[in-house]
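note to self — DONT lose this again. spent like an hour looking for the file last time. sequence + predicted structure for the chain T wanted, 306 res
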Amino acid sequence: MLNLLTPKRTESYSTRSLEAQVGHTPLLHLKQTAVAANLPETVQIYAKAEWFNLSGSVKDRAALHIIRTAEENGQLWPGMTLLDASSGNMALAYAVLGKARGYKVLLAVPESAGAERIAHLRRLGAEVIVTPGADGSDGAIRAAQEIAKTNRSLFYANQYNNPANWQAYYETMAPEIWTQTQGQVTDFVAVLGSSGTFMGTARRLRAFNPDVRCIAVQPASAKEGIKGLKHMPTAIRPAIYHETVADAALSITRREADAMQEMLALCEGIEVGSSAAAAVAAAVNYARTLEYGHVVTVLPDAPQAF
């Protein structure tokens, strides 16, 4: 059975509020996966189960922090519309949390996100502009940029260039990992999309302990088709991403991610999305190079039910 390590909720606002359901996710000890991968007992794998967030993914953390920061800075106020581009999870986070805080939400989403997901966003009240699937998330980004240029009354959240994105993980995820591992985390491995999760968590973990090694993971090529992940050499590069923050970079293939999805279901009894499987596959590959370590990764989401 999975060992769940869950931090306490300490916010001053009501734990019955929607926003209180963001963060404080369990840390799973993937013990059977480590055994199946023939890792020594001195090397353990842990993973943050981010599907426990309100809209079902790690992106709730960034969406909420971006909205709150914009409010505090006077960039976003009641009656305004929030605009951004997303290939999926961030769009859902905006749709849920934007509505919860009283905003209209306008999203540029690639057709490749899937008809059911796009329909779900619209059921949540978001206005969705569908961009060509062949252009991927970069096409959605370009569409959002054009809209922002022509309509200054919108708040363009701009997740790929907004420092509030990575700051969300600096303030929330990293302290949770530190507490849940009792300061024993030695290595942090995370996949790159907008790169906020990696950038913020890596920086804060290093603030706790400069010896923590931080590993960035991206698809082996632009054609791997792992949803939510960016192949930085061929994609529009997020301004918040700085490769020097990583101690090392790893690549992962769709085949490895698919195999890990099956392994996690068989060994741990959990179903995860392709980006989460890619993260664990990379963490295991990296762990094979260690003699000792507490390796922590992030499961961005679980398979969507729609």
